[in-house]
Amino acid sequence: MAQFLLQMSWWVPCYGLIGAVLTLPWSTGIIRRTGPRPAAYFNLLMTVLAFLHGTVVFRSTWNQEPQQLLFHWLKVADLDLTFALDISAVSVGAMELVTVLSLLAQIFALGYMEKDWALARFFALMGFFEGTMGGLAISNSLLLTYALLEMLTLSTYLLVGFWYAQPLVVTAARDAFLTKRVGDILLLMGVVALATMSGSLNFPDIYKWAETAHLSPTTATLLGLALIAGPTGKCAQFPLHLWLDEAMEGPNPASILRNSVVVACGAYVLIKLQPILNLSPLVLATLVVIGSVTAIGASMVAIAQIDIKRALSHSTSAYLGLVFIAVGMEWTGFALLLLFAHAIAKALLFMSVGSVISTTTNQDLTEMGGLWSRMPATTTAFVVGSAGLVGLLPLGGFWALQLGVDDFGIQQPVLAGVLLSVNALTALNLTRVFRLVFLGQPQPKTKRAPEVGWLMAVPMVSLTIITLLVPLMMQRLSLLPTWEYINRTSVVLLVSSGLIGCGTGATIYLHKAWSRSMNLPWRFVQDLLGYDFYIDRIYRLSIVFAVNLVSRFSSWLDRYVVDGIVNFVGLASIFSGETLKYSVTGQTQFYALTILVSVGCLGMLMSWPFWGFHVLDYLRVSSG
Amino acid sequence: MYVVGNKYLFSVMLSTQFPWLTTILLLPLVAASVIPLIPDQHIKSIRWYAFGVGIADFALMVYTFWCKYDLQNSTLQLAESYPWVPQLGLNWSLAVDGLSMPLVLLTGLITSLAMLAAWNVTNKPRLFYVLMLAMYSAQIGVFAAQDMLLFFLMWELELVPVYLLISIWGGQNRRYAATKFILYTAAASIFILVGGFAMAFYGDTVTFDMASLGMKQYPKGFEMLVYAGLLIAFGVKLPIFPLHTWLPDAHSEASAPISMILAGVLLKMGGYALIRMNIEMLPNAHVYFAPVLVILGVVNIIYGALAAFAQTNLKRRLAYSSIAHMGFVLIGIASFTEIGIGGAVLQMVSHGLIAASLFFLSGVTYERTHTLIMEKMGGMAQQMPKVFALFTAGSMASLALPGMSGFVGELTIFLGITTSDAYNPTFKVVVVLLAAVGLILTPIYLLSMLRQVFYGVNNSGIVIEGYLGDAKPREMFIASCLLVPIIAIGFYPKVATQTYDVKTVAVATQVRNVLPTVVAQQGRSPLYSTVLIAPHLAPAESRSLLASK
Predict the structure, then answer these.
(1) Residue ranges of A 38-77 with Cβ closer than 8 A to chain B
(2) How many Å lie between the alpha carbon of B455 and the closest alpha carbon of chain A?
(3) pTM for the full model?
(4) Cα dist from A296 to A244, A288, A312, A418, B250, whole Å
(5) Which end of chain A has the smaller Cβ count within 10 Å, N or C?
(6) According to the model, what pLDDT value does residue B519 have?
(7) In this structure, what DSSP letter does residue A451 have?
(8) What are phi and psi of B385, to 5 degrees?
(9) What does the pLDDT look like over A387-424, one tens digit per residue?
(10) Helical residues (DSSP H) of B202-282, grouped into ranges
(11) N- to C-terminal Cα distance for chain A?
(12) CA closest to B343 among chain A residues
């Protein structure tokens, strides 16, 4: 039985898709009598099935050799594209993580989206989301990975655009799609180039090829840059980072997944591509630069946000930036560990934030306060999530970051500094958010704020427990260092950076009534951070403006020049016809002359080869 | 004058008992002649009749190709040849192979669906359906004709109904658009006639049979001249960059069902004929022209996409997007690889389905909003969520999302051009990068279209009549008939590729065999000596290039 389930492990991502298909009768409005709830139940059932199946597969792959499943997809002429699936402990584990988080997010959504009329459509999209990510986790073929990344782009677009009548959603969905698409298309170029160079698109074959490949530095760099563009867009890294912030306009249960596992999928692909990126040192350096810029920049921008979801989403970019640094420095172990810890903690944070938003129907930090006594479970979730993210208490984030500081400390002290400052800034930001939301005096919107119902509380509390158990899981997977191998210096540095962050966050002056400072230089800095360093305006003034201008120009060219010539020919023929009609005089001699001249010209033309030489000879003779 | 009938075709014809292709071709035309006699005060029975004929013919095609057609055979099949006007050497010879078969099926599907889409035509319905059915026959004729003169006749026969269909049932500016269309295509089709005659009368024998024309050896200058002429003729149809300006006018002024056929079938005639004649009959000239085709393809892609973004009219935007997508076909045709040429055919089929669905949906929207100006719409999703969902699906297919047919077509063309050993690597990199820019531009204009029409709040004052409301079952049916094959091809491309695979391999082999001899010739112009390189691999070796071990 277990062997059979292992063979059928490609079914696990399909469950989500089946769930999405099952919701169709409700989302298209064929079944109205029951309301949209049954669709959600079908989806949940499918996710539970996926989880159970995944668990069996995970147990049987544990300590086993990785297996490969192959599917022939396209066989045209000499082209044979196969889809390979990799069934190993890591990939199935990642798939399980996706399934568990998706299951919790879906239960959460049942409460959060309770009164939404399009619940069925939402669950269809969630099922699609889950299936795509599960597939991405076990995909072992670059082409399949690319295809799934694009599907992920699509489902992000649809989920962000879920409330399509809202004005901000309109641009948010489009920007999310376009930004990711730019990355994806560059990735596709890399895929096409790799297909030509290595002859196969399955990761094992590519790795084998990459070991012996001799590429010119330019080719290797171009290839690597194309390949990292996809994950850069997916993980919201500079310069393709703006979409994640805007995507927070979408429903919160989707944001839970987006900020935890969707961005992780992009990083996961990057980790899988790492052996190819090794071909070019420049690409690795680029990764480190992108990662560092995003990590520091996004952590700072997060501090100035007053939207509760945006404050957290920027920190997602920052953590993914650390993963980019890790891949650039070839520390994939650290990258995977950080992704794991971050995914769970961030999901919990977003659940807690979701409860706050659902209870207060408000996302503005300055209008909140004093929720701790009213919403104890939510408060606990926020605290535990923060602790799981930041390197201070010995939870997931601490161990992951500790490994990072340990790794970087000797080789690249600068990068260790980046890591520590991200930790400090994140701690500061989370403390700030905590103070604004949960401490202080209740405000009008937070006065009557009961704890959320069980549909939202159960997944939140479960995830709180899971977050607390993360170190235990890490220990079981023997990812934690033993006591004597712990680097004391790095632990001290990490804890002190966390303490500094928390301390600053706890002591800075936070005024609720006006969030902008009266002090002019300070206010400038605040605005600069609050508006993402004005990068979106820079884009609007440069790229967007240029594309608009060029497209208008080509449209003008088409209408007045290319088409103009055609219309001119038409006009000219009408005009000449109109003019020529006055030459109809009735004189026979005139007609005869016309015919004679024309025939003469034709004759000249037809016998040109004969005449031509003679005329030329004549000319030559006369001139010579 | 010594006129040769095709002995090969004649012998094949004897073996087949029933003239399947002739039946398929003539059924709509014969059925159309009955329409004026149908007693009908209302138009109900006429439209059911016309649609029934369309579906019956499509069913006949499916049956014929399913039972009588051998997918593993790259030669012409179901051939039949009868002398028609022996004095002229005109034979009624029809046959299909991997190139024409998928396109004949596409014609059947899209034309039938277009008739179903035209359910609400109340103005001169008899004439409308007669013209539709006549056009149906002519389109099949273009794809199935194996005689140059017959091909030309069919090509012209299809123009007249299109002209009338645009100029009678079109939008405000329909006369201008229709006249432009007919002048453009008719003027260009003269080149087909001239080229055909030139080839037919060249050498010792006079024949119009396409296969025999392909076997003749022409001198280089002659071949180049004929190629250029045919390129203009088919370039207008495809369309290729400077010859495209009839298309936005015709597509946007025609009513939605006609636009479906224009974009879904008529553009494919250009691509089909380019492969059938320019490559198969004039392979030597093709080697010279191929780099030009690639460049024109890239221009089409970028220029079409940019111009599409600047349009404010929904259908004009879709029309320009067609221009951009047909650029990929040009690149595929000129790639000298099996994958690339196969990709070109797949892209034609896929674009036929996608463009037809998008134009159909634009018609559905227009029926409700009575405007095509996108700025005047907005927030339509609230009133017609189904149309919104279908439009989103169509747009996703058009912007080459994996899992939809557009992706497979464009991916195979990309792979075709990158694996091509006929081009200089720098040239390939530039071409691929520029085409990728086009791929990035596609979502820009499509998503902004969705945003302007559907997202947001309806503050445009457009009121959708209650009896129209959201998409009706008939409209859902049409859209799903188009979307199901799109998704099927996207998930399992073999559905489509197996129909033409052996044929495109044969075409690619033929043109590759010519390549080394032409490239090795001295005295080429500088453009070609830098862009084209002699392939290092023999054709047989290249076959294992991408095969998995």
Answers:
(1) 73-77
(2) 5
(3) 0.89
(4) 16, 12, 14, 7, 54
(5) C
(6) 65
(7) P
(8) -65, -30
(9) 999 888 888 888 888 888 887 777 788 888 888 999 99
(10) 210-215, 220-237, 246-253, 256-261, 267-273
(11) 101
(12) A76
Left, alpha or beta for A584 (phi > 0: left; psi -120 to 50: alpha)? beta
Residue B539 DSSP SS3: helix
Mean pLDDT throughout B336-362?
92
What confidence score (pLDDT) does residue B526 get?
47
Alpha-carbon distance of B214 to B427, in angstroms, equals 30
CA-to-CA separations, B526 to A207, B94, B222, B336, B523, in angstroms, rounded: 40, 42, 21, 20, 9
Angle between helices A119-138 and A89-112 (to 10 degrees): 170
Token duo for residue A207: 């790795």
What 3-state DSSP class applies to A339?
helix
The DSSP 8-state label assigned to residue B93 in this structure reads E
Give the CB-side neighbour count of residue B285, counting CA atoms within 13 A.
24
Give the pLDDT score at B533.
59
**Of B2, B155, B18, B149, nearest in space to B84 by CA:** B149
State ipTM: 0.86
Which of B346, B419, B547 lies at the smallest CB-CB distance from A80? B547
Nearest to B455 among A170, A547, A570 (CB): A170
H-state helical runs in A279-331: 281-303, 308-328
More confident residue, B284 or B525: B284
- Is A192's CB within 8 Å of B493's CB? no
Residue with tokens 């001169």: B124
How far is A65 from chain B, CA to nearest CA, in Å? Answer: 22
Token pair for B316: 């004009």
> In sequence order, which residues have a C-beta less than 8 Å from that of residue B509 and are 6 or more positions away?
B338, B539
Spell out which residues of chain B touch residue A566, defining contact as CB-CB under 8 Å.
180, 184, 245
Question: A551 in contact with B at a CB cutoff of 8 Å?
Answer: yes
B545 in Cβ contact with B512 (< 8 Å): no
Q: How far apart are CA A98 and CA A105, in angstroms?
A: 10
Interface touch B310/A552, C-beta < 8 Å: yes
- Rounded-to-integer distance, Cα A337 and Cα A328, Å: 15
Tokens in use for B231? 């390129």
> Which residue type, as a one-letter code, is found at position A161?
G
Tell me which residue has tokens 């409301």. Answer: B469
- The label of the residue with tokens 């320019």 reads B278
Cα–Cα distances (Å) from A58 to A49, A264, A341, B42, B156, in that order, read 14, 20, 19, 66, 65
Q: List Cβ neighbours of B197 (8 Å cut-off, separation of 6 or more).
A: none
B-contacting residues in A 82-101 (Cβ below 8 Å)? 82
